[in-house]
């Protein structure tokens, strides 16, 4: 479906389709199994991140600046997966790949908002590790629960404003080239390419968002860890270095999982021309795997969370053993 067959709503000179057609994977045999795989990642992500949220919320010992950041990341992971996967399930398992114009913009806003929130949260967590290792004596003076909460309040407000601006600017575009979106959700870029009037402002805002939430975060994180490694090099004993470095392992893994797929996608797009199906698979994996893996990484690599889980399991198992022994 390459031309507009849907009915249009004409408002002055702006032409908008009543519906968009989400193409997803086209011509791929057994593509439903891939969608089922994405649904499995969704349930793991929601359950895992919900457990992390509950543990942090209910355990007073985890009410610290670092875990406020982890709590915010888990919220962003749940938000992103809920913005992506349920809508995808509705679209492809009901054999109705149409989405209304307003629903498309709403989907675009929430997906982009939570993705940018993940990126900024990783930056805040990197700065938390930088202050904890490079300025340990000033850590509690510079970072406390109130400061971290205010930081994330500003982050939520700023991200909401910028993503809402970029989404609202889509309404000034006339979508008359086609109504087929070459992705598995209402992605900003593919919808932007459907416009047939001047979209220079939209492209500018899109580039600003990419710079603020992809390039700048990665640069800040790299600079933070350069400072951390420099500070570690001044520590005399290897035991102390490893002890300090272990506090960064979880965050480094999260950064790699978040940024590496996106970097690889950019490199692959620059080197060769990706087919639409290859692009859909790459984007879907880079968006759905990090929210699934993040809680697993934090549970496995964070001693405080592991100890709490062991205590809960021990308290549950001991009464059962006593009743069996009786």
UniProtKB/TrEMBL annotation:
Superkingdom in the source lineage: Eukaryota
One of the record's GO molecular function terms: olfactory receptor activity
InterPro entries per UniProt: GPCR1_Superfamily_Member (IPR052921), GPCR_Rhodpsn (IPR000276), GPCR_Rhodpsn_7TM (IPR017452), Olfact_rcpt (IPR000725)
SMART domains documented for this protein: 7TM_GPCR_Srsx
Cellular compartments annotated: Cell membrane
Ranges for domain G-protein coupled receptors family 1 profile: 48-298
Record's bilayer topology term: Multi-pass membrane protein
Gene Ontology cellular-component terms listed: plasma membrane
Keyword Glycoprotein: yes
Key words of the record: Cell membrane, Disulfide bond, G-protein coupled receptor, Glycoprotein, Membrane, Olfaction, Receptor, Sensory transduction, Transducer, Transmembrane, Transmembrane helix
Transmembrane segments: 33-55, 67-85, 105-127, 139-158, 208-232, 252-272, 292-309
Name of the protein: Olfactory receptor 1-like
Native species: Carassius auratus (Goldfish)
Lineage of producing organism: Eukaryota, Metazoa, Chordata, Craniata, Vertebrata
Gene: LOC113059020
